[in-house]
Amino acid sequence: xxxxxxxxxxxxxxxxxxxxxxxxxxxxxxxxxxxxxxxxxxxxxxxxxxxxxxxxxxxxxxxxxxxxxxxxxxxxxxxxxxxxxxxxxxxxxxxxxxxxxxxxxxxxxxxxxxxxxxxxxxxxxxxxxxxxxxxxxxxxxxxxxxxxxxxxxxxxxxxxxxxxxxxxxxxxxxxxxxxxxxxxxxxxxxxxxxxxxxxxxxxxxxxxxxxxxxxxxxxxxxxxxxxxxxxxxxxxxxxxxxxxxxxxxxxxxxxxxxxxxxxxxxxxxxxxxxxxxxxxxxx
Length: 283
Description:
five-stranded mixed β-sheet, single chain, Jelly Rolls, 2 domains, Immunoglobulin-like
């Protein structure tokens, strides 16, 4: 479906530039990677501009954004021809192509931090002005299904005490303190009543800040999902996997022998500052 010069639902956003520029659908065979048309952006004076579509993204979900791009004499001070999510800027940005290139696939993966409507940009220029021509085809935005680490099966056993904790709306736990006796097998029923994935990680006393800060760095770790967003050097007492919305996980573990205050938190990047509490092991 074509709406004027652009695909239906697409719009133009220009940040800066001078001279002639153009955004249009091109059907010439040499300008198409697959299908019947591609999007072309060109400038002869230098522009930082984009054609974009608005989409709704879910909080806490990892997405992949990709396309095939072809360029002709792209030069200037910008990054060239690329894709990005406008609201996330360089946190959700593909490599920029400059010069003359036959069709090349570009891709980036990112975690969206909140439920919102965003702009997916076919960007020409990017933090500077570019000249030349670029064609964009087979643009794709996909939700990535996490492959979480498989937990070892725990043999069915009698437990000596039971606890309950929920993740609730607002990046909070239902309780900020849990109390348990030392050295006993414990069942902790963790329910996720929120609309995004969460986990529960109990760590050694005095390590809450260092573990939390390390989780923020995991946004750039491609293996973070398989690690359940738990940093490698975290001193973990017990942990759940990432629990999907409206789901429950029963964590069975032996409480520490030593009385004290053992922090717990959700280690999804950014959640730890609000989703926190303490497991008090009684004397």
